[in-house]
Amino acid sequence: MSVELREISKRFGEVQALAAVSLSVAAGELFTLLGPSGCGKTTLLRTVAGFHRQDAGVVSIGGREVDEVPPHRRDVGLVFQSYALFPHLSVAENVAFGLEERRVARAEIGPRVERALAAVRLEDLGERRPDQLSGGQRQRVGIARALVIEPAVLLMDEPLSNLDAKLRVETRSEIRALQQAAGRTTLYVTHDQEEALAISDRLAVFEAGRVQQVGAPNEVYRRPANAFVAGFVGRMNFLPAARAPELAGAAHQLGLRPEDLSLHPADGQLSAPKLAARVRARVFLGPVLQVRLDCGEGLELEVEVHRPEPSAWREGEEVQVELAPERAHRFAADGSRVEPPE
Length: 342
Fold this sequence. Notes:
Elements: E1 3-12, E2 15-25, E3 30-34, H1 41-49, E4 56-61, E5 64-65, E6 76-79, H2 91-101, H3 106-119, H4 135-148, E7 153-157, H5 165-182, E8 185-190, H6 193-199, E9 202-207, E10 210-215, H7 217-222, H8 227-232, E11 237-240, H9 245-248, E12 253-256, E13 261-265, E14 274-284, E15 288-294, E16 300-306, E17 318-323, E18 329-331, E19 337-338
Parallel strand pairs: 3-8, 3-9, 6-7, 7-8
Antiparallel strand pairs: 1-2, 1-4, 4-5, 9-10, 11-12, 12-18, 13-17, 14-15, 14-17, 15-16, 18-19
């Protein structure tokens, strides 16, 4: 079922939490609200759920305006970052709770709980208490509890923030697989850029209550709409246009991702645009070497070297960093994107 948000605004005292936000989420889409803490993404999610009432604008679910509809009648399922499980109830009882509140026939509750637990691969743990589960298992119980009521729209608020790094990667893959299998329209809130890129059909990048860009992960990463998006989604080197005028055109500032730069010996002959630099630091991460460069005049750049030689690019070494014109992002003084010269 689709979700339509038109000109949603919300203030908390002097704070403008949302400023005329408009978004369209297609039926069956996993749409992520991405941004730093305090940018308004959770406020928007809670507005869709009905927990906040917007000051202006319209929320529609499945083509029906729901601004006057209370939360429990909006046909949405919620997954919280805190799990919010009842400690005195078993896993199966936690999952069944929403069905009982909706007065679903008792004969129907058992099979639906079994299907929901099977969907999250917890079918053998129904009798356990939450304190007998791992963090990842508890989060999957939260997902099962939201899925079992068969909502039109699933809302997920930072569902992986309490998990360790390895478990986050595993659980996000499970969430994506479950969402695709169910075909459930999902709004997903996170501040984790990698998470958003990995699971989203599309995403919206927020800053200070405003949408900065909407698009598919590859589009947002490869063609950021402005300097904020460029710096927030993935890593980006920024340098004044004056340091590489052959790339800049009318731009005030240039952006180049670490993987789009390459290193060469200081005495090498390069025809491409380049900067002289000194290796300031290096971090070996197995398949990738992260190299921090001092380019003088206060400019530092980060370069990624893939499958590096063990002795490559030692600290203090003089080098040249090659700038790829076709991969440079150009920004005006106000941060807006500048298209490359013809």
